[in-house]
Amino acid sequence: MSAPHTAFTDGGASDFSGTRNIEDFLEFVEKASGSALTAIGGGDLTRIEKEKEIFFVYVYDNLTPEENMRTISNTARAFINQVPFYTTSDPIVAKSLGVVTPPAALILKDGRQHTYPAASFLFEDRLILKAWVKKEKFPALVGLTADNSEEILRGDRLVILSVLDTSKPQPFATQKELMKEAALKWKEIEEKEKRKAAVKNRKEVQFAWLDGVKWESYVKRVYGIRAKNLPALVITKPQDDEYFVRDRNNELLNLESDLIQAIIDAESGVLVPESTLSFPQRVVKAFVSFTIDTKDLAVNHWVWSAAVVVAGLAAMWRLSKPAIVTGAQRLQPSLGKVDGHRD
């Protein structure tokens, strides 16, 4: 299901990715129609760093072209409810961020600064800026919400998903910190490999956590995880509709597992996958794959192929059930039922 698209007269645009209810959509429209930028001064930076896991800061001075602000505003609207955007001309903030010559754009996350590599902020360059923000918009460990679950759980990244028990504040905080440490450790490994060009064509890895209390029915249905088993850990391959819950020794993955080794094993095919698809969905997927693989046959034996396609479409119609995405169902990359392997 495509997301509602909001376009603005100044050339800006934003896609609504929240839950499908009118209250959330109206709240989104209200935010989108107002200013997407918040001006900050010297005393604000420390507070924001404590409150936000990730945020964007644009630093400018009185010599900065006015057109630049239009570019920043246009970019900010594309990331409503995803990344907060701040602007400042305060020299104290500029000094704190190490900006010597404005203008400059930075994203702050995981205790580090990521500086936009280009020097131009002309309106014609806005797509380049948006692409950079999109690349950097997730912290090392991201909490899954209705706004980002579609992109993460249906993207092309390998997702290390921790399902946490939020009903007990102290254990939850400890569990989340454990996952963040593992995520930062993996980021360090990735950066070292990039510098050495040690690994080519490796999938990007994203660490994420999900509220196992709020989404209890979802994680039980899709991953077979029950509330009594929290916290739990799943490695997912969204593009392949697969996930892993056991390591190379057939032990259940958990927050204390050697996650670095588990990631390497998942990438190299050592771990045994399970499917997020129900049996009917797997049948449909296999049929679609079969018809693609036999496209040459369709040219040479069109009568036989037509019969197979008709039979397959009939099976798809009988077996597949359309996913009706509503508020509580939004966080559902698969509506299939899986085996309860954690009983």
Helix-strand blueprint:
Blueprint: E1 5-7, E2 13-15, H1 22-33, E3 37-39, H2 45-51, E4 54-59, H3 66-77, E5 85-88, H4 91-96, E6 104-109, E7 112-115, H5 126-136, E8 141-143, H6 149-153, E9 158-164, H7 169-196, E10 205-211, H8 216-223, E11 232-237, E12 242-244, H9 259-268, E13 274-275, H10 279-293, H11 295-300, H12 302-319
Parallel strand pairs: 3-5, 4-5, 8-10, 9-10
Antiparallel strand pairs: 1-2, 4-6, 6-7, 9-11, 11-12, 12-13
Helix pairs in contact: 3-5, 10-12
What distinguishing features does this structure have?
about 350 residues; alpha/beta; Glutaredoxin; 6-stranded mixed sheet; 5-stranded mixed sheet; 12 helices; 13 strands; about 40% helix; PDI_TMX3; transmembrane helix; transmembrane
